[in-house]
Amino acid sequence: MILDREFYSAHATEVARRLLGTTLVHLVDGQRVSGKIVETEAYSGLNDLASHGRAGKTPRNLPMWEAAGHAYVYLIYGMYWLLNVTCEPVGQPAAVLIRAIEPCEGLDIIAKNRSGRHQREWTNGPGRLTLAMGIDASHNRCDMTSTAGGLWIEQGISIPDAQVSTGPRVGLGKHVKEPWLSMPWRWWITDHPCVSVAR
DNA sequence: ACGGAGATCTTCT
DNA sequence: GAAGATCTCCGTT
């Protein structure tokens, strides 16, 4: 069952929690390439200095303001594509970064895309998983609540709170403070071998 | 295991 | 013109 727009309409921190255990699917030449989401990060609001949405609308971050459940894909460090899913109602800049997955289907394709690396390093990072699954700029603004764009997320297994860890987000400038909120910003499945950063 | 540096280029200041 | 929601390679321990 494909996650619908209502699933993504909550606050980004809530969506980040609920995405743990769901299945990210990319249809490649009719073949399913998929993985279980095991690590996420939320970005939300004009007050979130770590978010691309902090300074208002720009050509790049426009998807963050639009309808929930769309892909926001952008290039970082001139080299890597990072996949986000937009959240919250229209008009509020928010998205969840998919930071790590556990490969499930299409292992032959994933292995080829990550040839030469150890299996443990196929998808344990936001730049690595897009390479592994073949996700790039062509998926930007794709509607992930339908199969039409070839990229979506399906309901998966439920992860109990006892198996969930949280912490500050990764890779932000040292001067960027984590905004206070009742929910944390980074989520992962405790002790899962595919998360990008243990701790 | 851990640490540092280079790669590479778009975006916004 | 500088920084960036990262990864890989190469060095030393």
Beta-strand residue fraction: 25-35%
Give the overall form. globular
Query: Helical content, roughly?
Result: 10-25%
Strand tally: 8
Sheet of most strands: 8 strands, antiparallel
| Tally of separate helices | 4
Question: Which structural class best describes the helix and strand composition?
Answer: alpha+beta
Arithmetic mean of pLDDT: 95
Give unreliable regions as ranges: none
Element order, helices and strands? HHEEEEEHHEEE
CATH class: Alpha Beta
Q: How far do the termini sit from each other?
A: 32 Å
- The structural domain count equals 1
CATH superfamily: Methylpurine-DNA glycosylase (MPG)
At the fold tier of CATH, the topology name is: 3-methyladenine DNA Glycosylase, Chain A
Query: What's the alpha carbon Rg, rounded to whole Å?
Result: 15 Å
- The CATH architecture comes to Roll
Structure notes:
The protein is of the alpha+beta class and 199 residues long. It has a single domain (5-189), classed as Roll (3-methyladenine DNA Glycosylase, Chain A), CATH 3.10.300. The protein has 4 helices and 8 strands. It is globular and about 40 Å long. The structure holds a DNA duplex (13 and 13 nucleotides).
